[in-house]
């Protein structure tokens, strides 16, 4: 399972990458996409939406289940990944790259430091049954 060390993580399986402009890119982890199976639909948030930390802002649906995607920190949605409207499977094939879901400008970027690091996230997820 892939858990990039440069990212921050939530207990609800979102990852966060803060860029040098102060914008956070958010997606779901390799573990989450694996648990959901083949994704068939993504409901994206609206650009300009103000969101609270831990509020549900998007939905992903797979052949197995639907899952809410939560905002890791409070902020304003600045961009959405429109490719996912036609190609939700990008989340399965490249969860940390082309499969990102939305970007947000955090109200307080230091909140991202409070999220789990890669070791903390790996300790939290169940052992794989391979």
**Can you tell me the CATH topology?**
OB fold (Dihydrolipoamide Acetyltransferase, E2P)
Write down the Rg: 14 Å
- The shape, in one word, is globular
- For the secondary structure, the number of strands is 9
Task: Give the helix/strand layout.
Elements: E1 8-9, E2 14-18, E3 24-28, H1 30-36, E4 39-43, E5 50-51, E6 56-62, E7 66-70, E8 75-80, H2 83-86, H3 90-93, E9 102-106, H4 118-124
Antiparallel strand pairs: 1-2, 2-3, 3-9, 4-6, 5-8, 6-7, 8-9
Protein model, in words:
There is one protein chain. This protein has 130 residues and is α+β, with helices and mostly antiparallel strands. It has helices at residues 30-36, 83-86, 90-93, 118-124, and strands at residues 8-9, 14-18, 24-28, 39-43, 50-51, 56-62, 66-70, 75-80, 102-106. Strands 1-2-3-9-8-5 form a six-stranded antiparallel beta sheet. A hairpin with a 3-residue loop joins strand 6 (56-62) and strand 7. The longest helix has 7 residues, at 30-36. The chain is globular. It starts with 7 loop residues before the first strand and ends in a 6-residue tail after the last helix.
């Amino acid at each position: 399972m892939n858990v990039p060390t440069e990212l921050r993580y939530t207990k609800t399986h979102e990852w966060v990458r803060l860029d040098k402009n102060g914008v956070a890119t958010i997606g779901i982890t390799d573990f989450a996409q694996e648990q959901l199976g083949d994704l068939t639909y993504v409901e994206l948030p609206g650009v300009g939406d103000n969101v609270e930390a831990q509020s549900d802002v998007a939905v992903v649906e797979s052949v197995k289940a639907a899952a809410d995607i939560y905002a890791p920190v409070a902020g304003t949605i600045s961009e959405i990944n429109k490719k996912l409207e036609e190609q939700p499977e990008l989340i399965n094939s490249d969860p940390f790259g082309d499969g990102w879901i939305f970007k947000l400008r955090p109200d307080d970027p230091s909140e991202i430091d409070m999220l789990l690091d890669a070791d903390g996230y790996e300790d939290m997820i169940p052992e794989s049954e391979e």
